[in-house]
């Protein structure tokens, strides 16, 4: 039979179902991050789920397929994965493309009853996948679940169980709550402490670093929205799941290490641009952001980038500290001068 129509940028996902599905499909994307990808695959293979115990509960085959989507990488990762992990299915992107498009490509080829969207810069802990699968099997209302994420420093990452971001919170983070400054670090610390104390249960939003999704849920709600990419793809997906009546679960007993940079050591210009565009689209669609509100968001973002640039210029000049003045000043110039960054040019769809 044919199942599911997925409203994702006009694409359609269909699947011929000739029997039982495998219990789990894990989708990982590599985009010139071979070292991280290999470590992730090693941890995934070292700590697999208890398929024999779980599969009968889901009416599934005790199988776990792993799909790697390579984003036209230049790091030779495809060859290394084929040599070291021959069971991994490899898909190559048709062109260099964004986070959401790559994960959607993998999910469309996934056969599992449950699909795990997993960042390549994660490490799976013993028992984590079994615990996540048990949680989603035990609670039919859950459309997706996520684990407790810890960073390389061992601290819980606040994004693994969080409220839905509002325009006001966005403006706050763009103005004062930057982890590069003392007040921003205190803000982040307070959020981390709050999440570290949180118990398992329904939450508004989990992190895109690790999302275990029920097939019937994404058949109904759709895949990642490709117009809302980096930084907001997980927020938008969680929001849309809730709009379709599904709950989002946080599973504190399952732990995944997320090595992603949560500090200021790297400022990726393309990621900051994507965050800005995605914020405008998300807030227009779900929070009724008006044209005037969009202009305020644009102004606060540009001011925030300017202040960061000046701060880093001073830190680099007065104290010799390595910073990101050039990146932030470039972003400030870009958002003011590039016509594509004008808020009236960014639509919700």
Describe the protein in words.
With 349 residues, the chain is of the alpha/beta class. It has twelve helices and nine strands. The protein has helices at residues 34-46, 51-58, 77-84, 99-108, 128-138, 167-175, 182-196, 215-221, 233-243, 269-286, 291-319, 325-337; strands at residues 22-30, 61-70, 89-92, 114-118, 122-124, 142-150, 201-203, 210-214, 247-258. Strands 1, 2, 3, 4, 5, 6, 7, 8 and 9 form a nine-stranded mixed β-sheet that branches. The longest helix is centred in the last third of the chain and has 29 residues, at 291-319. It is globular.
Provide tags for this entry.
349 residues; 9-stranded mixed beta sheet; 9 strands
The profile of the biggest β sheet is: 9 strands, mixed
Strand segment count: 9
Shape: globular
Number of helices: 12
Low-confidence stretches: 1-18
N-to-C span = 31 Å
The average pLDDT value, as a whole number, equals 88
Give the helix/strand layout.
Layout: E1 22-30, H1 34-46, H2 51-58, E2 61-70, H3 77-84, E3 89-92, H4 99-108, E4 114-118, E5 122-124, H5 128-138, E6 142-150, H6 167-175, H7 182-196, E7 201-203, E8 210-214, H8 215-221, H9 233-243, E9 247-258, H10 269-286, H11 291-319, H12 325-337
Parallel strand pairs: 1-2, 1-4, 2-3, 6-9
Antiparallel strand pairs: 4-8, 5-9, 6-8, 7-9
Helix pairs in contact: 2-5, 6-11, 11-12
């Amino acid at each position: 039979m044919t199942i599911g129509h997925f409203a994702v940028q006009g694409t359609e996902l269909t699947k011929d179902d000739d029997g039982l599905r495998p219990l789990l499909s894990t989708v990982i994307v590599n985009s010139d991050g071979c070292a991280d990808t290999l470590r992730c695959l090693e941890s995934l293979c070292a700590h697999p789920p208890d398929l024999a115990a779980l599969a009968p509960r889901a009416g599934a085959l005790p199988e776990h397929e792993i799909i790697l989507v390579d984003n036209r990488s230049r790091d030779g990762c495809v060859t290394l994965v084929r040599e070291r992990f021959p069971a991994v299915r490899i898909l190559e992107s048709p062109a260099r493309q964004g986070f959401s498009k790559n994960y959607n490509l993998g999910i469309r080829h996934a056969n599992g009853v449950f699909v795990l969207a997993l960042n390549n810069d994660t490490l799976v802990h013993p028992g984590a996948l079994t615990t996540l699968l048990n949680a989603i099997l035990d609670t039919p209302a859950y459309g997706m679940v996520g684990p407790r994420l810890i960073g390389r420093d061992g601290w819980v990452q606040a994004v693994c169980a969080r409220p839905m971001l509002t325009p006001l919170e966005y403006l706050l983070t763009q103005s004062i709550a930057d982890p590069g400054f003392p007040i921003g670090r205190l803000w982040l610390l307070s959020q981390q402490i709050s999440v570290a104390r949180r118990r398992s249960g329904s939450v508004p939003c989990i992190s895109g670093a690790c999302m275990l999704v029920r097939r019937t849920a994404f058949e109904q709600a759709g895949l990642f929205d490709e117009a809302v990419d980096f930084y907001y793809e997980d927020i938008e997906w969680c929001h849309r799941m809730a709009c379709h009546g599904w709950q989002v679960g946080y599973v504190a007993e399952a732990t995944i290490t997320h090595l992603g940079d949560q500090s200021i050591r790297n400022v990726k210009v393309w990621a900051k641009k994507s965050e800005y565009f995605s914020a405008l689209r998300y807030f227009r669609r779900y929070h009724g952001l008006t044209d005037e509100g969009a202009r305020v968001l644009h102004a606060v973002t540009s001011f925030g980038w300017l202040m960061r640039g000046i701060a880093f210029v001073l830190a680099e000049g007065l104290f010799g500290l390595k910073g990101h003045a050039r990146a932030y000043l470039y972003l400030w110039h870009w958002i003011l001068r590039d016509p594509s960054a004008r808020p009236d040019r960014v639509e919700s769809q």
